[in-house]
Amino acid sequence: MKELIVDTREPVKDIVPLLDKLGVPHIELALEAGDYDCDGITIERKAINDFYLSITEPKGDPRLFNQIPRLAEVSSRPILAITGDEQILIDNNIDYNPNVLYGTIASLMVRYGVEVLWLRDDWTLMNVLANLFQKVQEGKEGLPWYGIKTGRYSNPDLQRKAFITGLHGVSPILSDRILLHFGSVRAFVSAEVKEMLRIEGIGLHKAEHFYNVFNGIYGEKKDAL
């Protein structure tokens, strides 16, 4: 990956100068979900006031509850980045209930497997993106978010899901679909392309990629998704 992808719907006049200042190479493309993508790590940015009002106000932005499930569906590592301090809500005379905010964040994490970053402002987020981009380039992005080793007697279903989610382009939601359809990891890795295509969210390109991963010889050829 040579460039950070910035969604075309982002306010580029505010964001791009920050990325330029940090020396992050970037390109504007229409993403299926999220505002930024770094080699399959997809970040949805939400200002805290917009995030909170979308939860509590009847006239708030309803897109949140469509965006997060979609983010979890298409991204192999979905992240919600909330920018801004709670004081912003208080200063704007918003009827603020911390339990509503924290409960919603916890619900998104548990229900959709979304990681949440709560950052001071957009500049902080851009610094995180700059470091993320650098680590990915170095091949040091760290452990998969779905930790396989959670103890000596880890839950077998979590390990199965961790294995499937570890494939490039597989989100937690898609891994559920795969395992529910095939029943086992063995059945999935033994499947033909035409059988993989029966899964919602797996197109021809992705199915052929998985087949090559499962059946190719290590070191023989690099197969990029």
Key features?
2 domains; alpha/beta; DNA polymerase, domain 1; 225 residues; single chain; globular
Written overview of the protein:
With 225 residues, the protein is of the alpha/beta class. The protein folds into two domains: 4-138, Rossmann fold (3-Layer(aba) Sandwich); 156-215, Orthogonal Bundle (DNA polymerase, domain 1). 49% of the residues lie in helices and 13% in strands. It contains eleven helices and six strands. It has helices at 12-22, 48-56, 64-74, 86-91, 98-112, 122-138, 156-165, 172-182, 185-189, 193-196, 204-215, and strands at residues 4-7, 26-29, 36-38, 41-47, 77-83, 115-119. Helix 7 (156-165) crosses helix 8 (172-182). 27% of the residues are buried. Mean pLDDT is 84; it is low at 141-153.
Helix and strand topology:
Blueprint lengths: L3 E4 L4 H11 L3 E4 L6 E3 L2 E7 H9 L7 H11 L2 E7 L2 H6 L6 H15 L2 E5 L2 H17 L17 H10 L6 H11 L2 H5 L3 H4 L7 H12 L10
Parallel strand pairs: 1-2, 4-5, 5-6
Antiparallel strand pairs: 1-3, 3-4
Helix pairs in contact: 1-6, 7-8
Number of helices: 11
Poorly predicted ranges = 141-153
- How far apart the termini lie comes to 11 Å
For this structure, the CATH topology of the largest domain is Rossmann fold
State the strand order across the main sheet.
Answer: 2-1-3-4-5-6
Mean pLDDT: 84
State the order of secondary-structure elements, H for helix, E for strand.
Answer: EHEEEHHEHHEHHHHHH
Strand content: 5-15%
> Strand pairing plus helix content: what structural class?
alpha/beta
Q: Main beta sheet, described? A: 6 strands, mixed
User: Which CATH-level-2 architecture of the largest domain?
Assistant: 3-Layer(aba) Sandwich
Q: Tell me the total number of β-strands.
A: 6
CATH class categorisation of the largest domain: Alpha Beta
Outline type: globular
Rg (C-alpha, Å): 19 Å
Count structural domains: 2
Helix proportion range? 40-55%
